[in-house]
Design goal:
The complex is a heterodimer of chains A (about 90) and B (about 325). Chain A has one helix at about 15-40; one strand at about 80-85. With about 90 residues, chain A is mainly alpha-helical. In chain B, α2 packs antiparallel against α7 (about 170-180) and α7 crosses α8 (about 275-295). The chains are: A mainly alpha (about 90), B alpha+beta (about 325).
Chain lengths: ~90, ~325
């Protein structure tokens, strides 16, 4: 009895069109996601976690007076723009 | 949900020689004061900060420290925090934001507060300004002589070395107030345009920040931020003419102790905190166009050249909206 040597299954090479299609989809998917984040003001370079505390000074906590409850009415419908200028 | 889209409190007042604005959303954590009460506390803190750390007040803690003859003095938590912030900014900037130039700035003519006083027009100052040159650090690194011992509650420094909180005060104050507002859906603190933004609601809407041009007063650029700091430094404020008629301003070249004319008239920087943004904006302005591009590339910003041209650095077109055609948003500052 003879046996045939086991040959590794031949892998099918993906077609160039498929590679291009996947690459383009991945690129535009990632780019679109980042664009959406940036347009909503969430720059991943800054990161919400990194910005949540001043990292510089080991600063003191403010003593805020005790109080309770939610704020009253009068919330603005659209936040007014804020200006950064020389100070 | 309106709670994360809007602010329940929008407070404005004058302190620290600047216009302060505080916007606060809704409490997210239980037991927090109402936004109005939190704003009251923040306003009291800002006024106290000003009273205790102003170099223009003879009775401030800062003045007392600067006049103290010894090398080690007891200091409050606030003053120790300010000194630590000043040393941090000096280190972060490679010595360009130097908090030890008090004698130099006073010798240059800035002895009293210039709050509310108009500076000399930028281009008028530029006509008679010296040759343009980026600033460089003072090799003596005097700022490294300050040390803070929180356990002992003291500040140590070589006798006679003075501290000026002017370069970091507003950013630091914004960051300290931000700590007390961490439990609200969102918040914004602006100390004369040095801004800190944050909040706890993950889906909070961003704040729109307009960047004011230092020469025209117009606001042609707009950013939307949900967190972090942003600050602007420019030659359009705190400038004056000296006795000999030469123009001067408050941003000194540490290597000469003289006002710096770098080729830029303004710089806006983003940072993780307001203190970092304020530091980076000053460094960018002091470094001139080439240096500023490198410095601002980390978090993004904007520089304004002497020919009034604005140049975004490290900001994507999506993050930086050009709104030149909207007169309501580009109106001059009143």
């Amino acid at each position: 009895m003879t046996t045939e040597p086991i040959r590794p299954a031949r892998r099918r090479k993906p077609s160039p069109q498929a590679v291009i299609a996947v690459s383009v989809t991945l690129f535009f998917g990632t780019f679109g996601f980042l664009t959406l984040q940036l347009s909503r003001g969430g720059d991943p370079a800054l990161g919400a976690r990194a910005a949540s505390r001043p990292d510089a000074t080991g600063a003191t906590r403010l003593a805020v007076p005790p109080g309770s409850g939610l704020a009253g009415s009068g919330a603005a419908t659209k936040p007014a723009p804020v200006v950064t200028a020389s100070s | 949900m309106s709670g994360v889209q809007t602010d329940s409190c929008d407070r404005e007042f004058d302190a620290m020689g600047a216009r302060i604005r505080i916007m606060i959303g809704l409490p997210v954590e239980p037991g927090l004061p109402s936004p109005e009460e939190a704003a009251d506390a923040a306003e009291r803190f800002m006024r106290d900060f000003d009273r205790r750390l102003s170099r223009f007040r003879p009775d401030s803690e800062l003045t007392a420290m600067n006049e103290y003859p010894g090398t080690e003095m007891p200091a409050s938590v606030l003053l120790r925090t300010a000194v630590k912030a000043g040393v941090w900014a000096a280190r972060r900037s490679g010595g360009l934001v130097d908090p030890t130039l008090l004698d130099e700035i006073e010798a240059s003519g800035y002895r009293r507060s210039r709050a509310g006083r108009a500076g000399i027009p930028v281009h008028e100052a530029l006509r008679s300004a010296p040759d343009r040159k980026p600033a460089s650090a003072d090799g003596a690194r005097r700022w490294a002589g300050f040390s803070v011992d929180d356990e002992q509650g003291v500040i140590r420094r070589p006798a006679g070395l003075k501290f000026d909180s002017g370069g970091i005060g507003k950013g630091l104050a914004a960051d300290l107030v931000a700590e007390s507002l961490a439990g609200y859906s969102r918040f914004m603190i602006s100390c004369g345009g040095d801004i800190r933004i944050g909040g706890q609601a993950p889906d909070r809407s961003p704040y729109e920040i307009l960047v004011q041009h230092p020469a025209s007063g117009r606001r042609p650029h707009r950013l939307r931020l949900r967190s972090g700091g942003i600050a602007t430094s420019g030659l359009d404020v705190r400038s004056w003419r000296r006795g000999d008629g030469s123009p001067a301003h408050h941003l000194l070249d540490p290597s000469t102790g003289e006002p710096c004319w770098s080729g830029l008239i303004g710089a806006t920087a983003r940072g993780r905190t307001a203190l970092e943004a304020e530091t980076l904006a000053k460094v960018a302005l002091l470094s001139g166009p080439d240096g500023a591009r490198k410095i601002l590339s980390a978090f993004g910003g904007l520089i304004v050249h002497e020919d009034n041209r604005s140049e975004p650095v490290g900001l994507t077109p999506v993050a930086l909206h050009l709104s030149r055609n909207n007169p309501a948003e580009t109106r001059a500052a009143a």
